[in-house]
Amino acid sequence: MQTLRDLPALRAAVDALKSDGKPLTLVPTMGALHDGHMALVEEARRRGRHVVVSIFVNPRQFGPNEDLDAYPRREAKDAQMLAAAGVDILWIPPVNVMYPAGYATNISVSGISDGLDGAARPGHFDGVSTVVTKLFNQVRPDVAIFGEKDYQQLAVIRRFVADLDLSVEIIGMPTQRAEDGLALSSRNAYLSEEERKAALALPRALGEAKRQIEKGEPVEGALAKAIATLAAHGFDPVDYVSLCDAATLAPMTVLDRPARLLGAARLGKTRLIDNIAVDPA
Ligand code: AMP
Question: Which residues take part in binding beta-alanine (predicted)?
Answer without folding.
Answer: 61
